[in-house]
Structure formats: C-alpha cells, structure tokens
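Key result, reporting period 2: structure in, sequence out.
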C-alpha cells in the first residue's frame, strides 16, 4: 500500500515538473513579444472587420441585429478635449434575435449587461457599431427620429419602486404613454388601460392607488403593464425579478412568458440568475468585461458550455437535489477594471486553464457549432472542422485537487 502511494506521489511530481518545463518553454516563445504592438494589431483587425460588415445588408429574418456595438465612457480628457482614457462598458458585441424569441444576457456585476440593453434602446448613444431594428439602422438616429420607434422598443427596469413616479396613480402612470403616443382615442384610454392591467394580473380598483401602496411584485407588474401599453415589439428586461422573492419571481416570469405567447413579444432578458435565464430564454449570451465571450442557443450553451467563464457561472447554480454533490468552480482574483482591461484574453487573469498565449493574444470569436460562438484559446483558432467538444474545467480542477 505504501509503495503504491509512493509511486503515485512520484508520478504526480514528474507530471508537475513536465508541466513547469512546458510553461517555461512557452514563456520563452513570448519573451520578446510586443504586447502593445499585438493589441494595436488586434484593434486594427477589429476595425477592418467592422468596416467590412458595415456594408452588409440587414438580415431580413431577424427583428434585432447588433453589429460590433461599442459604448465607451470617457474618464480622462486633455485640455483640447481629446479622450485619453475610456471605460469600455460594451466592447465589440454582435448578435441576432428573431421576432418572438428571448435572448438571455448573463454575467457578473459590471460586465456591461445593463449598458448593452440601454445602448440598444438608444438611452445611451453608441460609441461605434450598428443596431438594426426591423431592418432600420438606428445607431445614428437623433432623439427626434427615435421618437416614433419608442412605442416599439420598451424597457422594464430592475427596481420597480424607483422607476415609478411616486406622486402619480397607477391610472396616471399607465395612461400617460397611451395619450402621448395616441395609441387609442382619448375617450377609450381608461378602458384600454384597465384591459392591460387585467392582462398583467392587476385589479381594476388599483387604478386610483399610488405606487407606495403596493408590494414589490405588484409594482413590477405595474412596470410590465406600463411597457405593454404602447404595444412594443421588443422589450428589454433589465433584471426584472432580482429584487423579488422566489415565489413572486416565478409569477412574474410566467406572466412574461404568457404575454410573449399571446402578444408575440421579443425579449432581451438580463439577469444574474441562470436558472431563471434557462427557464425563459431561447438563446444565451455570456458577457465578461464588456465582451461577449460565448453565444448560442439554450441547449448548446447548457449541454456544451465551451468557455471556462461560462462553466464557472454554471457551477454556481444551486441544485435542489440534496444527494447531488456541488462541484463549484471558484474563480480566484478580482475582476479587472474595464478602463484598463488585461492584454490578450480578458479572462486570463482569473482563468484556471490560462496558457501563455492567453496573456498576449486575444482569442478569435468563432463559431464552433451551428449558432454557437465562443472566444477561447482552448479551441482551434483557425478553420473549425465539425462540432467541438467542451474542455471540462471541472475535470481540470478535479485533477489538480
């Protein structure tokens, strides 16, 4: 028994020495590597790709198409007004979303989820990139030109209390957008609003009440009703259930799904809760430090998560079965600053599978399965031949233990 233990220890020591030797060899390959020049080269390549894609016509089969979208917030300027430092909240994000479908956006706090949603709605002016809504390129639209589209694009905010005016009744809150956008004739406004309230599970006698008289779940229903009064095609749901109890969360999610079925809404659903995203979404996008690191349909993302960051997020989802052991992947270190992201792969400072190349060269954002994109050096960076099986972070961390 002791001999077997000794052999196992020697094998582990030999394996560790081989790994260290391999890392030293790879490090020597990048010893004279110019990170700044490589970063400039990558930035130039991305700009050239964005310019080439800008000439392509919009996809007629989708309601929303985002191409190379960027939103930078200036932090420092020279006396002449030139920006010298920016916070890259959304950095080169692209995706497509068909009418009647739901896209779930997940990621840690500060990864740019909310900024992405607000930029799509033009609540923030995009720094660069294209936004196609129903075939129209709206990224450069002025506020006056966006006004007719406001009825077709709505948002449900995270905090249902602060997003409702405290001095207005529910009837006043819901009637105002109907009157401003002339959804129905003036004499039909109240009946129309009462019908919307009924669809959202709100009693008709709530019409004369104020927001402070309601619970969190009821206030969120009012926010949903407010978004629906103008009959939108696209609704951005910015963590609409994060401030609610679990039982109320289920009611709101089921309400959103029912309304989507009956009225044909298209959702961009932003959330931290992966179990909620799995329940409501058709497609899922995973964001890290402003970039989309993985994108695909729900089945491929949950059954074959490619990016190590996606695997780490999924390992945090609680399992209600007490007999199933949780294999949690704990990421070490803090999230880098979006104002000064790491060179190479943005995730390499926290990735348990980071290689030397990850520190110097950013991975290509490639399609590894039909509709399944990822950006990681663990997978082929050249031509992709056939579906790619995920490199399991659980197995790697298990072997290290």
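The corresponding designed sequence is given below.
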């Amino acid at each position: 028994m002791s001999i077997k233990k000794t052999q196992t220890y020697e094998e582990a020591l030999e394996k560790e020495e081989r790994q260290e030797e391999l890392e030293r060899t790879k490090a020597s390959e990048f010893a004279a590597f110019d990170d700044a020049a490589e970063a400039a080269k990558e930035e130039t390549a991305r700009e050239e790709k964005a310019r080439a894609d800008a000439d392509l016509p919009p996809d007629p089969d989708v309601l929303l198409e985002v191409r190379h979208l960027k939103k930078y917030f200036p932090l420092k300027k020279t006396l002449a007004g030139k920006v010298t430092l920016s916070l890259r909240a959304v950095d080169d994000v692209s995706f497509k979303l068909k009418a009647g479908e739901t896209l779930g956006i997940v990621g840690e706090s500060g990864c740019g989820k909310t900024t992405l949603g607000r930029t799509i709605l033009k609540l923030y002016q995009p720094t660069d990139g294209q936004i196609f809504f129903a075939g129209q390129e709206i990224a450069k639209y002025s506020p006056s030109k966006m006004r007719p589209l406001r009825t077709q694009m709505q948002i449900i905010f995270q905090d249902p209390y602060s997003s409702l005016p405290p001095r207005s009744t529910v009837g006043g809150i819901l009637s105002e957008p109907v009157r401003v956008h002339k959804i129905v004739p003036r004499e039909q406004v109240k009946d129309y609003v009462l019908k919307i309230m009924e669809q959202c599970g709100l009693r008709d006698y709530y019409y004369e009440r104020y927001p402070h008289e309601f619970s969190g779940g009821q206030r969120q229903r009012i926010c949903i009703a407010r978004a629906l009064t103008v009959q939108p095609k696209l609704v951005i749901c910015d963590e609409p259930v994060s401030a609610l109890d679990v039982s109320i969360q289920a009611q709101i999610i089921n309400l959103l799904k029912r309304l989507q079925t009956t009225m044909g809404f298209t959702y961009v659903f932003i959330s931290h809760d992966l179990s909620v995203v799995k329940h409501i979404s058709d497609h899922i996008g995973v964001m890290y430090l402003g970039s989309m690191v993985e994108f695909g349909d729900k089945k491929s993302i949950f059954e074959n998560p490619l990016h190590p960051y996606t695997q780490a997020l999924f390992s945090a989802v609680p399992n209600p079965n007490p007999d199933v052991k949780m294999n949690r992947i704990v990421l070490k270190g803090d999230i880098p600053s979006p104002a000064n992201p790491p060179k190479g792969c943005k995730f390499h400072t926290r990735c348990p599978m980071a290689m030397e190349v990850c520190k110097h060269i950013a991975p290509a954002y490639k399609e590894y399965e039909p509709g399944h994109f990822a950006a990681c050096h663990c997978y082929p960076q050249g031509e992709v031949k056939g579906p790619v099986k995920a490199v399991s972070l659980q197995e790697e961390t298990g072997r290290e233990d």
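The longest strand covers residues 83-97. Residues 100 and 265 are 5 Å apart (CA to CA). This case is discussed further under Risks and Mitigation.
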